[in-house]
Amino acid sequence: MLMHMVLIAADLWDVVGPEVVPFGPKESKVVQAFEKKKQLAMSKIVLSLTPSQLSFIAGLENPHEIWKKIKSLHRSLSINSILSLYCHFLHISKSPTKTVIDWITQVQAATFELENTPYPVSDLDPILVLTDSLSLKYEALRTVLDTLPITDLIPHNVIIRIQSHETLLDLYREKTAAQVQSGSTDSALVAVYRKRGGDQGARNVVCYRYGRQDHYQLVCLSPSVSHSSQFSGHGSTSCNSSPLFAGHVQDINLDNTPVDTTYAF
């Protein structure tokens, strides 16, 4: 309001309030007078600002745009706007779909908005917002932060520790996924192994080449060793001496009942 009156008294409001551009070449006296009044208006506006407010009008060269920016900042400093900013700041939470980087950036942006009000936040405020939104996976991090000296409890240190903890969690998730994938592969191999005899069914299979148990004809490695010397205690099991084609075996159950099974080797 005061600046508005100063500009009117200096006969400069016509180049600040309404966005009017005179017609004519740049060399004309009307255009040159208009540009001179714009420069004077910009000088009065900028000189009335505090150093902390200059960053908001950086890069603006039109007094009309500068006035609109200052007007919006003035309205944002009202008590209702500040309360709204604080409510937004205190209720920033990390959703499961939001990354840690996006969440930290959102908290930093809200902190910056409040720092330019008459009631800026302290260093502990963003730390409380960040730690309060963490899930139970970050409980160890909370314990570490509780042991930090008060001089080290600053937003920058807390953000670095949160990002480091998130990196460790990502590595743990990748390792767990790899173990689950490996376990699934091992289970499939065990299922195939048990289907073909396995540890529990070793006596259920015989080699049709020499009548020995514990392996098939296709995987017979020592045909010169007799059945009684290599597999003593398993009992003798006779097998059909008729020629068989590769891939066809005859399983023998524990009660010596033959079961024909065709396997794909």
On the 0-100 scale, what is the average pLDDT?
A: 71
Structural class: mainly alpha
Number of domains: 3
Rg over C-alpha atoms, rounded to the nearest angstrom: 41 Å
The DSSP helix count reads 9
Question: Helix share of residues?
Answer: 40-55%
Q: Give the strand order, joined by hyphens, for the main sheet.
A: 1-2
How much of the sequence lies in strands comes to under 5%
Biggest beta sheet summary: 2 strands, antiparallel
Shape: elongated
Number of strands: 2
Low-confidence stretches: 225-254, 261-265
Q: What is the chain-wise order of helices and strands?
A: HHHHHHHHHEE
Q: What is the straight-line distance between the termini?
A: 92 Å
Pfam family, one: Retrotran_gag_2
Keywords: Signal
Signal peptide: 1-18
Short description:
The chain has 265 residues and is mainly alpha-helical.
Structure commentary:
The protein has 265 residues and is mostly helical. It folds into three domains: 2-76, no CATH class; 93-174; 200-265, no CATH class. Helices cover 49% and strands 4% of the residues. The protein is built from nine helices and two strands; from the N terminus they run H-H-H-H-H-H-H-H-H-E-E. The protein has helices at 2-9, 29-47, 63-76, 79-90, 100-115, 124-132, 139-146, 155-195, 227-230, and strands spanning 248-252, 258-262. It has a two-stranded antiparallel sheet with strand order 1-2. A hairpin with a 5-residue loop joins strand 1 (248-252) and strand 2 (258-262). Helix 4 (79-90) packs antiparallel against helix 5 (100-115).
